[in-house]
Write a structure and sequence with these properties.
Blueprint: E1 2-3, H1 25-28, H2 33-46, E2 53-54, H3 68-71, H4 96-102, E3 113-115, H5 125-143, E4 150-153, H6 167-181, E5 185-188, H7 204-218, E6 231-238, E7 241-247, E8 253-254, E9 263-266, E10 272-274, E11 276-281, E12 284-288, E13 297-300, E14 311-312, E15 321-322
Parallel strand pairs: 1-2, 3-4, 4-5
Antiparallel strand pairs: 6-7, 7-12, 8-14, 9-10, 9-13, 11-12, 13-15
Helix pairs in contact: 2-7, 5-6
């Protein structure tokens, strides 16, 4: 494993401070836990050496990791400081981390990308989806591979501004939509392993394994596992019952026979009420709510603090979603 030393720059650099290290307890303690568990899972199953090149800086926004040429497509960002000698800048400003911590390692031979970021862009969900797509296009162009796998982590639940706040849910929604706009991508959902009182949940081993499952199936040809999160597809409203359809692999949705938590429905008044829900088929969930005889919208875990309950047959949690856009 090799971790690039934290640094910032207003101009792209050609060199950085980094050193390849052996997989020892002492070195692992200083490395990205998610990346380590990802690589550990791959190595054990593939039985080949695996290297991870880590460039990270916690709490930073996505625009810090993008180059100036890409950021020029987003006029809402002021890039004047990049061309101003002596200007003040930091790791939370556009391009500064790309210049110092990504530019020097281009185009180091790599199999694919892992991405675990998002909290710092909470409150700008609509913009984030556009930024993330541009970021992936940029990275694939730099590495000269339009099909380079890109696997990312959906942010975990956290009590940002109260249990009913939805800014985190909106960012998760933007990340979910990127599955449609970014080809050769996959999303590790962490809805079930968040920590409402800690923005950095401790179960990094599970996050790493979920990322590894996607790489093993989609890039190394491993059979018998469905690593992809169930994603909302459509809904069909009826009298006192709403059927929700999902994109899900052949093993279908789970758990069968258990009441699901986290579902809400709303009528024409746009007021959401808790609902009862059950898995009713391999790709369907039936939702009931006596308070809303004519449902027009369904939401699942669309808050910052949630109790998820829906998975695929291999225990991969479904993403939070909403059918409305209110």
């Amino acid at each position: 494993m090799c971790t690039v030393q934290k640094n910032t720059s207003c101009t792209p650099l050609e060199e950085c401070t980094a050193q390849w290290q052996k997989n020892t307890p002492e070195n692992v303690a200083e490395a990205s836990a998610t990346a380590y568990f990802f690589a550990d899972c791959l190595q054990k199953i593939l039985d080949v050496p695996v290297g991870i090149l880590i460039s990270d800086w916690g709490g930073t926004p996505i625009e810090s990791w993008m180059d100036k040429e890409t950021m020029r497509r987003f006029p809402e960002f002021d890039l004047a400081f990049l061309d101003t000698p002596g200007a003040d800048y930091n790791a939370f400003m556009p391009c500064t981390l790309y210049n110092a911590m990504v530019s020097p390692v281009i185009p180091y031979t790599s199999k694919g990308f892992l991405w675990y970021q998002g909290e710092a862009n909470r409150g700008r969900a609509d913009q984030y989806g556009r930024l993330m797509q541009a970021y992936v296009d940029m990275m694939r162009e730099k590495w000269g591979n339009d099909n380079m796998p890109f696997y990312y982590v959906q942010i975990a639940p956290f009590n940002y501004a109260g249990p009913d706040d939805i800014q985190g849910a909106l960012l998760r929604e933007a990340q979910m939509k990127c599955l449609e706009t970014i080809p050769h991508s996959g999303m590790a959902v962490t809805l079930d392993i968040g920590d409402y009182n800690c923005i950095h949940p401790a179960k990094k081993a599970e996050v790493g394994r979920r990322l590894a499952y996607m790489a093993l199936v989609h890039d190394y040809g491993l059979k018998g596992i469905n690593p992809d999160t169930p994603v909302y597809k459509s809904m069909e409203a009826g009298r006192n019952k709403t059927t929700v359809y999902f994109k899900v692999g052949g093993t279908g949705l789970a758990p069968l026979g258990h009441e699901l938590t986290g579902f809400e429905v709303a009528g024409a008044d746009r007021i959401f009420h808790p609902a009862t829900a059950y898995v009713s088929g391999y790709d369907t969930v039936e939702v009931y709510c006596d308070a809303v005889p004519e449902a027009v919208a369904v939401r699942y875990c669309f808050k910052d603090v949630v109790q998820p309950s829906l998975y695929n047959g291999f225990g991969i949690p479904a993403s939070s979603f909403r059918t409305d856009s209110w």
